[in-house]
Amino acid sequence: MTTSSNKTVTAVAHTNIALIKYWGKQDSELIIPYTSSLSLTLDQFYTQTSVQFNANLSEDRITIDDHVVTGTGSKRVHDFLELVRQESGLNLSAEVNSTNHVPTAAGLASSASAFAALAAAASKAAGMNLSLTDLSRLARRGSGSACRSIFGGFVEWQKGFDDASSFAVPIETRHLNDIRIVALTVEKHQKPVSSRKGMAFSVKTSPYYPTWIKVVDADLANIKAAIKDNDFTRFGTISELNAMRMHALTLSADPDFLYFTGDTLVAMNEVKRLRHSGIECYYTIDAGPNIKIICQQANVKVITDTFSTLFGPTKVTVAKPGPGVKYL
Ligand code: DP6
Fold it and tell me: What positions does the domain Mvd1 C-terminal occupy (predicted)?
């Protein structure tokens, strides 16, 4: 067993937005999903994390955005470091320093970029030299969506059936590279039901969950074909449909729950209005009230102008496809 290491390793990972959503685990301990999913890594939102395992520390010291976090706030990070210690054989406490870079007021800090950066920095600081596939598997154990942030551009998380077979793979393509995501922050407050709790509750209580598993297979095959054919219309249509199908699993839970607010509905209607007026755009929504508008570069200006007028310019951020995980 290795007992010493004092290398500080810093990694940067970008967040991703799922176009075909992950919503439900068949194994909550290992984070093995019921369905595969597909995302786009974004250039605008990222987490930078440094990790050092240090013989002088008696316990893990975790700082996020310049605040030392303890107790329940640090439990997921601490559990993840335990896993890295187990897998590396290193028996030291760690100093973790993490900063989320999100544009002013975007409110989009995400567990995907956080655990992807932590997996990369911690595994390397512990002396593990993981392949990108193994790094994706490790990041998955922190937060499912984090396994996709190891890679840039379009990424598929292949659900697999156990720890070894569930990981993300990049979709190598030059197609749809003028795609843009206009992130609209209608609400900065934390979501009332976390994704983790919300998906577990949908699996347990929505009578439509078995149908979701079936339709995701078809949605995924269709969106991959749309990427291959460079077909933005089909790509956007399937993304919007899949997001609404996911949210139907919250509405059909018992008791039901809903991530949308009134402003979410206003924004959704505005996307449809623009689309019907010939400005092609679609929306997707995660486990919260904010919406991400999927469009192409040519329409970015009119879309950002429209939503800046409705909600204020500070609420609107434009993202492009972003890179995979990097070491500094
Ligand atoms: C709606 O990856 O945050 O964003 O695995 O429990 O940490 P855990 O969940 P998380 O869930 C993401 C849910 C989603 C859809 C998606 O990103 O695919």
Answer: 182-315
Question: Which CATH number characterizes residue 258's domain?
Answer: 3.30.70.890
Within a domain: 266 = yes
**Ligand 1: does its nearest atom lie under 6 Å from the Cβ of 196?**
yes
Domain holding 92: CATH number?
A: 3.30.230.10
Residue 115 DSSP SS3? helix
Q: Specify the ligand 1 atom closest to the Cα of 140.
A: 5
Q: CA separation (Å) from 115 to 147, 246, 252, 295?
A: 8, 23, 30, 28
d(CA 149, ligand 1 centre) in Å? 12
Is the distance from the beta carbon of residue 147 to the nearest atom of ligand 1 less than 6 Å?
no
pLDDT digits (tens, 9 = 90+) for 12-28: 999 999 999 999 999 99
In-domain check, residue 166:
yes
Question: Same domain, yes or no, for 90 and 160?
Answer: yes
Confidence bin at 2 (pLDDT 50/70/90): very low
Same domain, 99 and 154: yes
56-73 pLDDT, tens digit per residue, is 999 999 999 999 999 887
Q: What is the pTM of this model?
A: 0.96
Q: Residue 194 CA: which ligand 1 atom is closest?
A: 3
Q: Which domain holds residue 273?
A: 179-319
User: To test ligand 1's pocket by mutation, which of 14, 19, 20, 22 has the most ligand atoms within 8 angstroms of CB?
Assistant: 22
Q: Which segments of 147-280 are extended strands (E)?
A: 154-158, 167-170, 179-184
At position 94, the amino acid (one-letter code) is A
Helix axes 232-251, 195-205, angle to 10 degrees: 70
Quote the pLDDT of residue 293: 98
